[in-house]
């Protein structure tokens, strides 16, 4: 296939162009209890039940290549935006961000460009599709650092970029997203699970701490980003990302404003208003939703801002969650205050 012969210096190619349509699981409803997500406790972490076979397969069989980059995050923490920014940055040699109308992100949802590993590795077919990608490969996961395979955690060939956000904003965004499949899901119910650490990818404090500690121990291996900081300085964080993946902007690129071009290309409103990101689930368009679940492409683009939690979380709820998170993070040097 022509795309697989692409030079490694040009960066990743859209996963959809290699693999075709690939199901990406979300939060399917439970007919017996529309309020409960199908999560399982696996090795001390709560994972979506449909993802567990893929997680086990990753742990057993994933072999990294030099140049591999894994984007890690809890759900609803800026994952879609990070996928777009990382893809546009790493692939800028093959897909200049100034050619916005010709860029893969103009015709594909970011999740079609950067696949979730959990949804691919449950069978050999997904693994073979990943093997078909040219290097450097760009992929994503919601897995805790503690359950990543040693092949990812210990290999000098594979880098990790992690993003997190204020837990209060995360739980609000997660609730809005989950209600696409579970309309009866109350915010109070979601909030209770979140505070108890039993929501998808929970406990959230363990998720964040795992990558935070890894970034402190091996800063050359794990880049720790915060969504709020990226909103305040997107260009600076794109530069940081490019440097981290060994593709720093050249003086010529800096003079031309390539980092700003990438930020414009991946602007939240720009992406949200593209036709591909308004497609309904199950669409028959050339670029359908990146999942076979009830989640349409527009479900990945809600507000793209911080502080929306204040519209949903009562003062008492905010104090409770802040206290839980503060206690769990105490002594780590990390805070969401």
From TrEMBL:
Compositional bias (Low complexity): 283-294
A Pfam family: Sulfotransfer_1
Keywords tagged on the record: Transferase
Sulfotransferase domain boundaries: 67-333
UniProt-recorded Gene Ontology molecular function terms: transferase activity
Enzyme Commission identifier(s): 2.8.2.-
Gene3D superfamilies named in the record: P-loop containing nucleotide triphosphate hydrolases
Keyword Metal-binding: no
Ranges where the record places region Disordered: 279-299
SUPFAM superfamilies reported in the protein's UniProt record: P-loop containing nucleoside triphosphate hydrolases (SSF52540)
This protein's record includes keyword ATP-binding: no
Domain of life of the organism encoding this protein: Eukaryota
Cited InterPro entries: P-loop_NTPase, Sulfotransferase_dom
Stated family: Belongs to the sulfotransferase 1 family.
Alphabetized PANTHER family for the sequence: SULFOTRANSFERASE SULT (PTHR11783)
Protein name, per record: Sulfotransferase
Naturally occurring in which organism (per UniProt): Urochloa decumbens
């Amino acid at each position: 296939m022509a795309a697989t012969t692409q030079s490694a210096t040009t960066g990743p190619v859209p996963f959809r162009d290699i693999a075709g349509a690939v199901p990406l699981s979300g939060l399917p409803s439970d007919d017996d209890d529309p309020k409960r997500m199908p999560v399982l406790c696996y090795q001390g972490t709560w994972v979506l039940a449909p993802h567990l076979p893929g997680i086990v397969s990753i742990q057993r069989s994933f072999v990294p290549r030099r140049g591999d980059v894994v984007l890690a995050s809890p759900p609803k923490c800026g994952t879609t935006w990070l996928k777009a920014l990382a893809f546009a940055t790493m692939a800028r040699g093959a897909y200049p961000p100034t050619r916005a109308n010709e860029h893969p992100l103009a015709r594909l949802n970011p999740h079609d460009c950067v696949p979730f590993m959990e949804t691919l590795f449950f069978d050999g077919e997904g693994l073979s599709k990943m093997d078909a990608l040219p290097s450097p490969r760009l992929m994503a996961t919601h897995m805790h650092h503690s359950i990543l395979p040693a092949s990812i955690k210990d290999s000098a060939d594979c880098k990790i970029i992690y993003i997190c956000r204020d837990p209060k904003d995360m739980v609000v965004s997660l609730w809005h997203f989950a209600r696409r499949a579970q309309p009866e899901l109350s915010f109070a119910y979601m909030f209770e699970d979140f505070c108890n650490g039993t929501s998808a990818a929970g406990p959230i404090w363990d998720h964040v701490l795992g990558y935070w500690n890894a970034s402190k121990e091996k800063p050359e291996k794990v880049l720790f980003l915060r969504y709020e900081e990226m909103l305040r300085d997107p260009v600076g964080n794109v530069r940081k990302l490019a440097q981290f993946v060994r593709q720093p902007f050249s003086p010529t690129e800096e003079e031309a404003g390539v980092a700003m071009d990438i930020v414009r290309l991946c602007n939240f409103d720009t992406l949200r208003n593209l036709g591909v990101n308004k497609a309904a689930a199950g669409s028959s368009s050339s670029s359908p939703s990146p999942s076979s679940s009830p989640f349409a492409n527009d479900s990945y683009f809600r507000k793209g801002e911080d502080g929306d939690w204040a519209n949903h979380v009562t003062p008492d709820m905010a104090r409770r969650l802040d206290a839980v998170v503060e206690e769990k993070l105490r002594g780590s040097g990390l805070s969401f205050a």
